[in-house]
Amino acid sequence: MSEKKSHVLNVFMDREYPSIVKAEGIYLYDDQGNRIIDGAGGAILCNLGHGIDEMADVLRDQAKKAAFVYRVDFTNPPLEEAAAKVCEVTNFVMDKVFFVSGGSEATEIAAKLVRKYHLDNGSPSKYKIISRWMSYHGMTMGSLSWSGMSGRRADYIPMLSDNNHIPPAYCYRCWFKQKPETCDLACAQALENEIMCQGPETVAAFMAEPVSGTSLCGATPPVGYFKKIREICDKYDVLLILDEVMTGFGRTGKWFGYEHFGVKPDILALGKGLGGGYFPIGAAVATSKVTDTIAQESGIFGAGFSWGGNPMACAVASKTIDYLKEHNLVERCNEMGSYLAEKLEALQHHPTVGDVRGMGLMRGLEFVKDKETKEPFDPEIHFSVQLAIECLSHGLGVQFGMGCDRGQAGDMIYLGPPFIITKEQIDEMVAILDKSLAEVEKKNGLG
Q1: Are residues 356 and 121 in contact, defined by beta-carbon separation less than 8 angstroms?
Q2: What is the DSSP letter of 178?
Q3: Is 0.90 surpassed by the pTM of this model?
Q4: Is the dihedral of CA 140, 146, 151, 153 positive or negative?
Q5: What phi and psi values does residue 236 have, to the nearest 5 degrees?
Q6: Are 107 and 129 in contact (CB under 8 A)?
Q7: In the Cβ-directed half-sphere of 284, how many Cα atoms lie within 13 Å?
């Protein structure tokens, strides 16, 4: 009898995937009875933990009331409530919320908001979005164009729009050969240089992640970076879009990543943790400066998606914010993140661990062939993929990343477990990583 054929178009088409039939707390359970620690929170988005009855109840209850309402014609109570709560947790730095179905849509809407603002503000020549190499802003054609992640762009370059990128804020492999303690923020000054080269009258916005996602796995900018970026944006009437799809809603140990850096963005792109891991939702959130300008001029923002602002997603987002507050999970993320960082630092004894970085429960490790020179592994080895597979065989799921060395080489993994994780569970997680890393090093003739 032949095996049952799967009709799912998977990412890796020659791979057999474990089938997850249950999820609870920080654990996933497959159909063979294996327990797996969700060490990456899915794609760094399952912030609350799995299997929470209250979240399931929200979905059921809202489905009975109204499962869909079209945002062009109507509003609905969950939409109004969720928008108010999102603005509240920014301390009303942000004024209006445009809900979508995920992070890629959020960055798309953010860019459209920028364009509409400049049109209504009397600057129709401003349309260019500057972003950074080694960034990731999504997989739609627009968001992929702004992304600087070479591997994900490669197949689609002929289809992408022509956009402008500056060097990343990446201290471990600084493109300017500087050290954090003596840094003159050349990576931030690069923005002003690019604005001048493009022509200030054409540049509409700068888009960046406060802490890098899968493209650089937790790389954080040097002190003063975002303050200089903010100054440059203000000088040239360039809006600052912060992509907090991954960092938002507690992942860095604060509600939003920008809070660590003493700046306020003009627009936030949100997703992932906004739904706590229970429903696909994203949002573009703007200041009154942006939305009042549009309201007072054309009075219309005609972008959107059919499922944007649907009551099911908004009810989940609203409950997610409540749950984070009621259980002090943002504070817990900060506490557990510090503990995880301490435990990961202990892995520096491995000959391949070049860097440990990140904030909160958003931690990355970069692996190198030579610690002194920071020489990366031959990309044909797929060192980080080997490690992720080895970890999974021991009951730990992690995200792997490649191409951090200017898109040509470089291996990383990313950890981002649910905020409910305990110190004992972190110990178990790091112990598996330690063991798995030693085995992969041995297989590759290291250690």
Answers
A1: no
A2: -
A3: yes
A4: positive
A5: -115, 15
A6: no
A7: 26
Q: Which amino acid is present at 210?
A: P
Distance CA 27, CA 43 (A): 14
Give the pLDDT confidence score for residue 128 in this predicted structure.
97
For CATH 3.90.1150.10, the residue range(s) in the chain are 20-51+328-443
Res 206: pLDDT: 98
DSSP label at residue 167: -
Whole-number pLDDT of residue 1 = 38
**207 token code pair:** 């888009």
Angle formed by the axes of helices 423-443 and 383-393, to 10°? Answer: 130
Residue 61 corresponds to which tokens in the numbers above?
Answer: 């209850």
Q: How many residues can be counted in the chain?
A: 447
> What are the φ and ψ backbone dihedral angles of 29, each rounded to 5 degrees?
-125, 125
Residues spanned by CATH 3.40.640.10 within the chain?
A: 54-326
Integer CA distances (angstroms), 220 to 84, 147, 179, 272, 363, in order: 30, 17, 13, 19, 10
Token couple for 272: 């992932």
Judge contact between 63 and 312, C-beta under 8 A. yes
Contact at 8 Å (CB) between 168 and 175?
Answer: yes
Beta partners for residue 415, in sequence order: 363
C-alpha dihedral, 330 to 334 to 339 to 345, nearest 10°: 130
Query: What would the two tokens of residue 355 be?
Result: 């860097």
CATH architecture for segment(s) 54-326? 3-Layer(aba) Sandwich (3.40)
Report how far residue 45's alpha carbon sits from residue 316's, in angstroms, rounded to the nearest whole number: 14
Using DSSP, state whether 79 is helix, strand or coil. helix
Q: What is the pLDDT of residue 294?
A: 98
Its CATH architecture, for the domain 20-51+328-443, is: Alpha-Beta Complex (3.90)
Is the sign of the CA dihedral 314, 317, 319, 322 positive or negative? negative
Distances (CA, A) of 63 to 81, 312, 314: 17, 7, 12
The DSSP 8-state label assigned to residue 49 in this structure reads: -
Whole-angstrom distance, CA of residue 39 vs CA of residue 399: 8
Q: What pLDDT score was predicted for residue 270? A: 98
Q: What is the largest CA-CA distance in the chain?
A: 70
pLDDT in tens, 101-145: 999 999 999 999 999 999 999 999 999 999 999 999 999 999 999
Helix (H) or strand (E) holding 324: helix 311-326
CA angle 295, 289, 324 (to 5 degrees): 105
